Amino acid sequence: MLSLELIRQNPDLIRQALAKRYDSAPLEDILSLDVEHRKLLQQVEALRAKRNEVSRQLSRVKEKPPEILAEMREVGRQIDIIQQEINSVAERLHQLLLCLPNIPSVDVPLGRDDDDNVLVRSWGEMPKFAFEPKPHWELGEALGILDFSQGVKLSGSRFYVLRGRGAQFQRALINFMLDLHIKESGYTEIYPPYMVKRECMEGSGNLPKFADNLYHDDEDDFWFIPTAEVPLTNLHRDEILEPGTLPLYYVAYTACFRREKMAAGRDTRGIKRGHQFDKVELYKFVEPETSDEELEKLVDQASEVCQRLSLPYRVVQLCTGNLGFAAQKAYDIEIWAPGCGEWLEASSCSNCGDFQARRANIRYRAQPDARPRFVHTLNGSGLALPRLLIAVLENYQQAEGSVVVPEALRHYMGVEVINPTIS
Known about the structure:
This protein is of the alpha+beta class.
């Protein structure tokens, strides 16, 4: 959430930020409601001051004039009415503030969409095949490790079943990534709930903006997480972290649930885009002065997964129009999938500044007697399944239809090759 004081004092800055994002958030309504809210506060404060002054005067006399008492009762009634208006306007203002996206950092490239993202670096060489590489949906079915028909039978379109070595392969990738981030980068593993309260979705920036893309249990008002970023953001909601606590690094493996309404008609083949998928998420709570440096480290830590698996990848910086709602700066890590013939986004690493911290009220003290400040939060997939699984299958496929297990995964898999006859 953006500071109302910042919006009030620098409305042109916010207008420019919205224009860079190609976002139509209701800034003018916010400014108008803010003026109305402050006028109502002045009115009620004036009435309270009047009532207090009359009360002091009446305390000095024994006989209370009936007309004065009647006037004060009317003042009290007016205060109640105006206070109700204040509460109503404040709630409307709060809901509109939740719709404002973060302000892009000054070094974010201008642009509207994916075509305007900027290539930062690439790593590895694209594999060369002496045969036509197959897409993962053909490979997986031929190996007996990927079953689309059973996914549809169980749950409908955009669902699938991983079977035998396929399920083991995904589990190996998850365990490999968790071990890498915990043992080598110092992350603390968290196993969070997959359903959260409404305020958790608001704190992370998913509500109200993305309500149509979330799964919701109406009876208990539980929200199924679209990413572990949501519960990890809220681990320290409404807390003031003590001096010396930061930085905090968390990693979590979870299933993720998305309705994918915003992606209707896209990536309909294979497992690139489903309503349920697994992900290893990296999350940081840091001091504001270090967040830019921590973002670069986060990208390197997520990229290390690709390097350990010898997967060609590239890092692109997102342009202003392609930034996530809560991000002020972000990079995507894209892995080459030769069977699909495309780069697949497997991670988006974002610095959210104090945007989420303001929404979730997460602060820290730099010193014991220091005034609390909002932390900065960062998040990134480290990495996301199933796109990582796609990349491994397609890059390591062999002419006869088998798939070589990357060396980094053999300890977890117990085999070096997945053959068509093994499922």
